[in-house]
Amino acid sequence: MRTPQIGRLYLQCDPYENIDGWSDERIWQELQIRLASEGWKLTEGPILQKGVTGMRSYVVEPMQYGRLFLAGDSAHIVPPTGAKGLNLAVADVQVMARGLKQFYATGSQDLLNKYSQTCLRRVWKVQRFSWWMTSMLHRFPDENPFDRRRQLAELDYVTSSPAAAKTLAENYVGLPMDDTYLDM
Q1: CB neighbours (10 Å) of residue 79?
Q2: pTM strictly above 0.90
Q3: Going by C-beta distance under 8 Å and a sequence separation of 6 or more, which residues neighbour residue 170?
Q4: Are 83 and 117 in contact (CB under 8 A)?
Q5: Is the pLDDT of residue 182 over 60?
């Protein structure tokens, strides 16, 4: 949710599909089908933004070159499925800020020299989570019956196992930002 009244929702479509083929009416119809739940109705309103978003991933390693530090989308891209892009960027900046604070307070470059290594631990965990969410929640053109059944089994496991639900929740709401990532 962006606000109590505004949300951002995604519908899977072909990444080469023309957005003009998705009228507001068609979008609401598809959302009503997908979000139908007994005793609840999706409230329709104006659609503020439409676009076709590619499901891509990318990581730059290392995330620094000398005194040039990369953070956020300049260093890594994750698909929107896991909703982790902004959180990951903020984590990068937090690690960088601690390094800069140490440098300007003491002259030590220890934390700055570990910036890339520290950030990449989190980046790769988030990449893994985003890939897992994408593969669990999206259909693929080359999907076969075996893959579809495996996907359904994964969804069943996540919705029926307290351990799986806890793992999903931990990754979705955010990995801890503690000394595990900051003091390597």
Answers
A1: 20
A2: no
A3: none
A4: no
A5: no
